[in-house]
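EI: anyone free to look at a 376-residue chain?
SC: sure, send it
EI:
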Amino acid sequence: MNTRPVLGSDKGPFALSASFNADNSCFSVGLESGFRVFSSRTGDQKTAREVGGGIGCAEMLGTTRYIAFVGGGKQPKFPQNKVQIWNDATQQISTSLEFKTPVQRVRISQTHLIVVLLNKVGIYRMKMPPEKVADYETVNNPFGLCELGKNIIAFPGRAVGQVKLFDLTTHNVSIIPAHESPLRALALSADDTAVATASEAGTLIRLWSFPSCTKLSELRRGVDSAIILSLAFSPSGTTLSVTSDKSTLHIFDLPSPSQQSHTTRAAADDHKWKLLSKLPLLPRQFSDTYSNCSAKFEMGNEPASFGPAARSATLQAGIPGVPGGRPTKGLLGWLDDSTVLVLGAGQDARWEKFVVGFDEAGKRAVWREGWRRYLD
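SC: here you go
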């Protein structure tokens, strides 16, 4: 495998969280003393700001000068119940929004600002100051689950395992009863036509179409339970990447409807359980769709008190102001249809680049091309 040597090995300050911008060209990191912005393609630092306190959540508006902040960490710069819109050109706060309860996460685009509270999602037009469009009650959402696409928003509904989809153009609302257990991860395809969901059970990933809200397929990560850390569609929507607290990156090729209906002996030969997948009466684990390939990524060496994340998707705990209460781990972002990044924050903050392709035998494969500890 083509594995590049480590690019940097010095440990830097503690990273509270990491987040990609809308096109995954950059990622922002909240620190105990400020924030930093990095190039996704190289992992090189682009911007570093000391603001005199902790930033638990930093969400970039594209590659422009605006970043949405929530205070966090041991000594937060701002209260956790406020969203601050930072203008990096002036290095000042342009506007802010205050809420009655702590903010779990923020999503931002050129047109909209989404604020996620423990039991509510607020939708705003991106103006100065932001203009409220709507808000919706949700089940407990301590991980701040919310995906902002071009024209839709996906977030938990009022019932356990339910996904609510809000159309930004029509303001129509759709509901998907996705799982029986609480949601743990969400993803939207680039064209807003597909939704991927995982529950805290961590065994199955389900794919749903939009706007019909019908189930397209089920993908099996494994038989034993795990924490799904992140889901991400490739830019073309033909591949789904999945990370879990098993330190495993899974790659699923998503077949077209014609391919889904085409069953051959070759398909059975490629299946995890070979011909057993075609035998009747065996448990469904033998016939389910498994990942086409997988690789290991680094969770990083963390103190016991800053583990990957709490297993429960409904209980609130951990570091104030940080989505999920724990440093970001296993965050996925595609650069193109063959390159996917895995980010981790914490004491051992890492950037890893993986290439998805084929090995010498023509089998689907994924391998790590390079990595670095991105903080100085």
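EI: The chain has one domain: 15-373.
SC: 👍
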